[in-house]
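Propose amino acids for all 186 sites.
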C-alpha cells in the first residue's frame, strides 16, 4: 500500500492552501471588517474552492487506499460518488475559477496595479502571500490535471454550472454593493 507521488503532492498542496488561508485570515485589513468580509473577494472564494477541492482529492485517495481489495459494493459505490464529486469540482469550480482569478489578477496588475492590488496592500499582505493567492493556483491545478484522469460533465451541464456560479457571485457583489451603499447613505 505504497503512496503514489501524486497523492503525497495533493496532501502538500492542501496543506499549503490551509497555510495561505490561515495567514490571510490573520491579517488585520480594514476590508475584512466591512460587510461581506473576505467573502467579497473572488481570490478568497477561489482559495476556499481550491482547499475544498484538494481536500476532496485527498479524501478520495485515502478512500481508494482503504477500500483497495475490499469486496464491499457499498464502499465501491461511495468511492465512485466521491470520484464523481472530485471530477465535477475540477471541471466546474477549481479549474475555471482558478484560471480566471490568476489570469485576470495578473493582467489587471500589469495594466494598472491600483485596479486590483493598490500599493497600500503591501503594508498588510506580504509578497509571498500575494503569490500564494494569485500565482500558485495555476501550477497546482495544471499538475492535478496532468497527474489524474478526470471524467468531465457534458459541455452544456458544465457550462450551466459555471454560469450559475458566476451569476451567484455577481448577485452577491450586487448585494454587498447595495448594503454598503445604504450604510454610506445613512
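Proposal:
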Amino acid at each position: 500500500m505504497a503512496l503514489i507521488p501524486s497523492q503525497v503532492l495533493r496532501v502538500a498542496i492542501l496543506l499549503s492552501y490551509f497555510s495561505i488561508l490561515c495567514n490571510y485570515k490573520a491579517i488585520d485589513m480594514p476590508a475584512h471588517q466591512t460587510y461581506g468580509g473576505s467573502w467579497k473577494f473572488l481570490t478568497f472564494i477561489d482559495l476556499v474552492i481550491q482547499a475544498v477541492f484538494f481536500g476532496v482529492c485527498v479524501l478520495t485517495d485515502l478512500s481508494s487506499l482503504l477500500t483497495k481489495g475490499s469486496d464491499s459494493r457499498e464502499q465501491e459505490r461511495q468511492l465512485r460518488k466521491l470520484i464523481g464529486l472530485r471530477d465535477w469540482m475540477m471541471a466546474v469550480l477549481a479549474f475555471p475559477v482558478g484560471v480566471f482569478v490568476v489570469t485576470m489578477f495578473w493582467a489587471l496588475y500589469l495594466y494598472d496595479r491600483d485596479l486590483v492590488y493598490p500599493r497600500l496592500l503591501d503594508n498588510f499582505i506580504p509578497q509571498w502571500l500575494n503569490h500564494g493567492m494569485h500565482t500558485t493556483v495555476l501550477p497546482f491545478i495544471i499538475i492535478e490535471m496532468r497527474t489524474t484522469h478526470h471524467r468531465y460533465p457534458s459541455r452544456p451541464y458544465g457550462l450551466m454550472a459555471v454560469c450559475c456560479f458566476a451569476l451567484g457571485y455577481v448577485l452577491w457583489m450586487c448585494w454587498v454593493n447595495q448594503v454598503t451603499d445604504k450604510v454610506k447613505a445613512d
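Helices lie at 5-26, 42-67, 73-111, 113-116, 127-134, 137-147, 155-185. The CA atoms of residues 95 and 142 lie 8 Å apart.
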